User: Which sequence fits this backbone?
């Protein structure tokens, strides 16, 4: 036995034994160790996010611009079809900024969910051959969605400058909270859905449909004021509005609009927002974190058989 | 000899069993339609049955068996890729699994980008990869294509780069599954030389191969599996004989 071999043997003798695979653990310690493991792989997470962004538009000549063209086309469609033709812009000054702020945040949520749901399946090659904490795959698609969102956010801010609607106001502080709500729920859903999708491939189609519904039940192309009016006209009691507001994405979008759409806050426009918006955001973040915990527990139960089910 | 017997164990496999359940109905519709007869649409078999092995540091151990005997499953259980149905595996030291070369390669990224990505997947930090980068490229002998997208690589170049990364990870335990049968002859020899160097350095190698000659050349212990059970554990030559016998039982 050479000296190097002897040195290695004595070093190994001093190491403790560890269980192979991911520690399932109890409800609390299992979650904590998953977070630690994901954190220790943050360099890899960063590389995976870059890989996803680089690979997406690698061989197209417009490349990265495509991630802007889609939301801008959607903006144009909603602006003309719904704003001008259906007349939704009546009562909503600066309709373009209103729609675009909603679209941007919704785009973040829908990209996290749709990318996250597919993240385990699309990394099948790695999952079958290498042991990694599998949580990093949904996290990586969350990361790449965040990057695209950041680019759109720059466009949104640029638009507010061009239209002289700069959101230089204290309400801008709602924006980071709103993004946090979306990110936390996005991570929770994509952890859960990506794991379930391995066993039941219908999930990915179900997600597509649900996102379509989700878009229209959130106040993105219409304002919250319209909802209150409509519910009032139908003579429905107040708790129906509360059910509408139980959707965390709705709260996040309202807060995001409050942050960026200053034309709505002028006395003559008088856009309606739910009461205690800040408190609602904080509650949603806490609920969202609990959902992340729950989703991770489900994920860790299901991931043991990923390698053979894919 | 006393130093050899003092070598510590690095892998404990404790009563590991793995039961595969194969569901034939993947979609929601099929599950609902077949809900009552759900059990008829399940097939299960034991890929591993009460397998217990201890492996000491510095040994090269070959897993042998006919197709479907459970050897690759056992390797994946050791690597933590598959969770056993019962029992557990304990190990210590850094592990690298060469179950498929270039598993983490992305075809649209360049060789350089893939080196960083794959090294990170195998557990190297960015700083360590920076240090080894030149040596990885030299070992792979493809330096002029390092900035080309790997989808344009020939399969040989692909494997060279992947193997070069894997051997630079500095593993204490190396899991190898059939991957050495690739590449041209000079490169295969280079791989074998690297494996022998690993043996001298006291690394533990767990090997799955069908090539009896390779096993006879490299391993100092073999474990023969048949239908998920260990039927032989010991010296190489009787092990290969036991393998030949096990083919008869199929």
Assistant:
């Amino acid at each position: 036995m050479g000296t190097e071999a002897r040195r290695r043997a004595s070093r190994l003798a001093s190491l403790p034994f560890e269980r192979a695979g991911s520690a399932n653990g109890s409800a609390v310690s299992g979650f904590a160790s998953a977070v630690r493991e994901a954190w220790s792989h943050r360099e890899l997470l960063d590389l995976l996010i870059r890989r996803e962004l680089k690979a997406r538009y690698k061989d197209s000549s417009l490349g990265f611009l495509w991630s802007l063209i889609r939301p801008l086309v959607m903006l144009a469609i909603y602006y003309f079809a719904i704003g001008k033709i259906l007349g939704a812009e009546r009562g909503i000054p600066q309709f373009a900024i209103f729609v675009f702020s909603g679209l941007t945040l919704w785009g973040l949520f829908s990209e996290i969910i749709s990318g996250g749901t597919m993240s385990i399946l699309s990394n099948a090659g790695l999952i079958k051959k290498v042991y990694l904490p599998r949580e990093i795959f949904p996290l990586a698609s969350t990361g790449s969605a965040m990057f695209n969102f950041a680019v759109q956010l720059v466009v949104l801010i640029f638009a507010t400058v061009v239209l002289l609607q700069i959101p230089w106001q204290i309400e801008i502080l709602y924006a980071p909270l709103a993004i946090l709500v979306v990110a936390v729920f996005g991570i929770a859903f994509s952890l859960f859905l990506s794991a379930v999708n391995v066993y039941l491939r219908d999930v990915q189609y179900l997600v597509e449909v649900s996102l379509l519904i989700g878009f229209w039940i959130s106040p993105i192309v219409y304002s919250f004021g319209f909802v209150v009016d409509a519910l009032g006209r139908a003579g429905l009691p107040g708790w129906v509005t509360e059910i509408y507001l139980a959707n965390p994405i709705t709260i996040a979008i309202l807060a995001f609009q409050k942050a960026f759409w200053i034309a709505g806050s002028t006395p003559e426009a008088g856009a309606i927002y739910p009461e205690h918006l800040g408190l609602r955001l904080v509650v949603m973040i806490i609920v969202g974190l609990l959902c992340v915990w729950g989703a991770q527990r489900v994920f860790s139960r299901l991931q043991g058989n990923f390698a053979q089910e894919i | 000899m006393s130093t050899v017997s003092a070598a510590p164990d690095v892998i404990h496999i404790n009563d590991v069993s793995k039961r595969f359940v194969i569901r034939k109905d993947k979609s929601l519709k099929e599950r609902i339609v077949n809900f009552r007869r759900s059990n008829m649409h399940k097939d299960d078999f034991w890929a591993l049955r009460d397998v217990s092995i201890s492996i000491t540091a510095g040994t090269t151990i070959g897993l042998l068996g006919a197709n479907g005997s459970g050897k690759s499953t056992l390797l994946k259980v050791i690597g933590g890729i598959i969770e056993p149905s019962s029992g557990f595996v304990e190990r210590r030291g850094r592990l690298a699994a060469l179950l498929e070369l270039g598993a983490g390669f992305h075809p649209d990224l360049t060789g350089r980008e893939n080196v960083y990505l794959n090294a990170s997947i195998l557990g190297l930090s960015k700083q360590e990869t920076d240090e080894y980068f030149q040596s990885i490229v030299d070992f792979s002998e493809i330096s002029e294509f390092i900035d080309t997208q790997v989808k344009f690589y020939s399969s040989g170049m692909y494997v060279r780069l992947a193997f070069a990364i894997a051997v630079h990870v500095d593993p204490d335990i190396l899991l190898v599954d059939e991957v050495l049968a690739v590449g041209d002859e000079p490169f295969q020899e280079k791989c074998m030389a690297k494996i022998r160097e690993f043996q001298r350095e006291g690394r533990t190698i767990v090997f799955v191969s069908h090539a009896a000659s390779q096993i006879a050349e490299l391993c100092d212990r073999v474990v023969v599996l048949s239908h998920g059970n260990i039927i032989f554990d010991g010296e190489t030559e009787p092990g290969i004989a036991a393998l030949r016998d096990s083919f008869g039982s199929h």
